[in-house]
Amino acid sequence: MPGPIVVINPNSNQAVTDGLDAALEAFRLPGGPGIECLTLAEGPFGIESQLDSDSVVLPLARLVQGRPDAGAFVIACYSDPGLDACRSVTKRPVFGIQESGVLTALARADLFGIIAIAEASVARHRRFMARMGVLGRLAAEIPLNMSVDESARGEKTFERLVEVGGALKARGAGAVILGCAGMARHRPGLEAELGVPVIDPTQAAVAMAMGTLLAG
Amino acid sequence: MPGPIVVINPNSNQAVTDGLDAALEAFRLPGGPGIECLTLAEGPFGIESQLDSDSVVLPLARLVQGRPDAGAFVIACYSDPGLDACRSVTKRPVFGIQESGVLTALARADLFGIIAIAEASVARHRRFMARMGVLGRLAAEIPLNMSVDESARGEKTFERLVEVGGALKARGAGAVILGCAGMARHRPGLEAELGVPVIDPTQAAVAMAMGTLLAG
Amino acid sequence: MPGPIVVINPNSNQAVTDGLDAALEAFRLPGGPGIECLTLAEGPFGIESQLDSDSVVLPLARLVQGRPDAGAFVIACYSDPGLDACRSVTKRPVFGIQESGVLTALARADLFGIIAIAEASVARHRRFMARMGVLGRLAAEIPLNMSVDESARGEKTFERLVEVGGALKARGAGAVILGCAGMARHRPGLEAELGVPVIDPTQAAVAMAMGTLLAG
Amino acid sequence: MPGPIVVINPNSNQAVTDGLDAALEAFRLPGGPGIECLTLAEGPFGIESQLDSDSVVLPLARLVQGRPDAGAFVIACYSDPGLDACRSVTKRPVFGIQESGVLTALARADLFGIIAIAEASVARHRRFMARMGVLGRLAAEIPLNMSVDESARGEKTFERLVEVGGALKARGAGAVILGCAGMARHRPGLEAELGVPVIDPTQAAVAMAMGTLLAG
Amino acid sequence: MPGPIVVINPNSNQAVTDGLDAALEAFRLPGGPGIECLTLAEGPFGIESQLDSDSVVLPLARLVQGRPDAGAFVIACYSDPGLDACRSVTKRPVFGIQESGVLTALARADLFGIIAIAEASVARHRRFMARMGVLGRLAAEIPLNMSVDESARGEKTFERLVEVGGALKARGAGAVILGCAGMARHRPGLEAELGVPVIDPTQAAVAMAMGTLLAG
Amino acid sequence: MPGPIVVINPNSNQAVTDGLDAALEAFRLPGGPGIECLTLAEGPFGIESQLDSDSVVLPLARLVQGRPDAGAFVIACYSDPGLDACRSVTKRPVFGIQESGVLTALARADLFGIIAIAEASVARHRRFMARMGVLGRLAAEIPLNMSVDESARGEKTFERLVEVGGALKARGAGAVILGCAGMARHRPGLEAELGVPVIDPTQAAVAMAMGTLLAG
């Protein structure tokens, strides 16, 4: 068995890393690859702006270079910061959660929707999907208009998720992506409520990483 | 834990099913979803023509309807026959190996290539990728020009895979998909030889199915 | 002169076939190709689901194989079931009415709209148009929300057609396709009411078939 | 029955008009629309340059305005000069032969090819297909490198057509369009030789025009 | 230094030419290329219809041919009439203001919007942008619903520009193009009001022309 | 007049900055915006890898933040590093030379080609053009296979530029972009040799910046 899947939370909010860890618990199977969740010490407390996103690229690449024992990497921030940089410094697979989340959604529905945290990230995500060439299958991306931290704790988060998810369905989305690393615990409830697949992008990326490692 | 991943070989060649079974052995983990490989009794011995592909659609849908215990389904033929039909008769996820293989390749490289078995399937695959909206990222698809059965046994298969894989790389492919359900055993060797990720589409689909089931 | 244009109604509702026959009466010209309208005995009473559509593929291919005297074939169901299958068993031209309707609309306006019968068919049509590569010119597809049978008889059908056609125009459609084999008798009235070209897809397919046969 | 289909040869080479007339003879059926082939008096002897093409726009629009009795118009030059102008001055349908030829090819094959007369027209055609949104389905366009007049008479034309048609097939074309108004007489022979549908664009446009008029 | 940039107003409304002249005053720099604004004598008073647009193509080409001393040309009508014609008769660069305006907007924002004068021009512009291949980045085009002349003088023009510009922003436009040659004087005020870049297309074209000439 | 155009060479090779300075000399006009060429002290000696490109993002953003007096910025490296970051920290326009070069090429030809320095940058450029949505108009990008430094000095550079430029023309390119900040001095000679427009991307970006500033 190759080394573990190293899941990197590029912000320095340990609560987010803990949430990732919990969301991935079910993916840790005896005989399967290990899953290690790390907090990027150099990261900002939350990645909310373009500059926040750019600020973690080099630290991420260094972290990847410092883990020759890893089997695969997952960058657990929905802006996929440093994806190209990390891929350029290792031959092992590196998965971005935005990319993996979108690709996984494409396996579940003709059109997909995204629940973003903040308005500001929508344009950043759009640019990345343009580069992927998948905008033709995007129904819409609608922000919760909450901070990452708020959305991670807030009591009204679920209510707002249902509201935005419903708006995405009304625009044709047959699957919905949680556009943030920190909302996995709402996934099953939201899926039940909306009646369409709801995808946690970190789980999607880890599943792809597992597939790569199990293939041998 | 929900029911098993039911992997259906839509042709009636048991050797192909056995090959799938072997290729998925590493994906069977304690505590993880079961993986059951079935041969579609009504299928032709090989799916080589459009009519072969169309002939299995209704039997596949019936098989899916007859397995309310399953957690997810994988249609293990690279033409993805019956994908829409199966999805229309169940709320559980149904993965086609062509679709999953392509989406997984998109997580590994900007441009991907496909090694088809026979010339005749190239146009069929192209139509499906057009529908997916991903032709902009296809470097090329090149056939081995062998029958499914030949390729499954043949001694010259690996040699030919290396040759075609090299031609795909020369056209810009940064990842290569084995465009058939029956070539998984060549995957590691071919990846080593080519130096770019080589994707077995059935493994890719099973990894996506596992991700869905483990997410709960 | 080659053999007749064989227009196949893939459902077993003879009233629909009779409607086709009437709609094509004007296309039967002395010295031109014959036009024969057939009911597919094996078809369901209406093609409303994906499974209905898939269920007629093999019977359609068999029917085509059994008519070596035909000059061309038209599959007269807006889901274009069996188009690939039929094309794979004959060298004579096979026209699907969805495909022909869309292509004919593209000769009349920059953006076109579609009046579907039921909500359920919209996604199926979208997948086909994605494969065709023409979604960039689709203004919208809006369903009547009636069954095929209802729409074929109902008195309120015309009223509803005008309403949906008007909504399509408001979204930019410069031509409107009747997204069903059974609404040709409303075509002239609807065109007069809307003031933009209204296309009956079976007539569009038969015109293309005539063109092929008259070219010699 | 509405008025005739007026087919306008926008160049002043009467031999080309006569060729059109002959190519459309089979489309004149008792009880069907009349087909009238006209030479645009103001046109240049051949339309080979962008300026030639632009020079006929206003005369074409005037001709259209002067024929209130016509049922439909066909502009029989593969550059589709004046298509927008003519459509803006009449409510009756106006078909361009490039547009109609391409749309008809799309009903016959996934990928199509075009045999152009001269290198200089390839870029002009490409711009028009870009506007149509169909470049994703173009296999290739290859010029004969002959003048319109040469190609209309020349003895080596057929030989060269077979050569270019073969090259288009080798690049994936499943249907071939004669990219000129004056080559219809080679259509049946070339189709027999190549084994794929060969489309004369004027016949394609007239078939679409007939369909519109016969629909009533 | 090569010859001047010849900016051609293809309509015969001298007030529009004078407006262009004023809008370009700041672009006339000592040592830089001269900028000459001409009125096309043969042009209609305003270019509002397709036929108006087509009517100026040949006169524009003749004007270009008659100015061998020019360094570059700008066609200052937002429909870019005669762009292909003019380019075919000179080796010197010819810029259309629609094309230049759109390309300049693409350097300022992911999605752009257009303020058209009249509804009738929206479809014409859309066809040109389809040909350019940039529709994927168009947020929307919304007309002022005024005549060119009205918009050039009217007191309510600015009010209406702010209204339409706001609507474009609401649809995602990060930059706004004034879709007419005659609205440059509103540019700075509108940019200040909207808070996103506002592009006068004639200034955009002249800047591109300057770049070409200064490069030597 | 607003502040100067600040052109930033993100590598620390002063010879490259000096080359930029020389290439922009003709753009400095009395009464026009100043043009200041800076070397990014923190930059690597050459930007050849993804990591080199990522390493300058934050220093570029800081430099931009530290120049509130500037009128516009140009990032003079063909990978457009830090474009999003810089745009996020200032309201003044920021131009990337890749983006500006491509957009300027689109104003000169239907299809454009790019001469890259090294093979390694081709994929990076492709990803950026995918994001721009302009790959449909790319004829090809072909590398010189030289280092930035070599290409800046080498005597065989021009010979190789002509060779690669010719190959791009053969693939349909009607305009050619020099895909590097350091080759402007070859532009006029190469344009004369190839007979199609050759675009220096830094000059293209500065022309766009001038246009923005002169518009007021």
From TrEMBL, chains A, B, C, D, E, F:
InterPro entries recorded: Asp/Glu/hydantoin_racemase, Hydantoin_racemase-like, Iso_Racemase_Enz_sf
Pfam families found in the cross-reference section: Asp_Glu_race
Gene3D superfamilies listed in its UniProt record: 3.40.50.12500
Single annotated GO MF: amino-acid racemase activity
Top-level taxon in the UniProt lineage: Bacteria
Family: Belongs to the HyuE racemase family.
PANTHER family reported for this sequence: PROTEIN DCG1
Name the record gives this protein: Aspartate/glutamate racemase family protein
Annotated source species: Thetidibacter halocola
Taxonomic lineage of the native organism: Bacteria, Pseudomonadati, Pseudomonadota, Alphaproteobacteria, Rhodobacterales
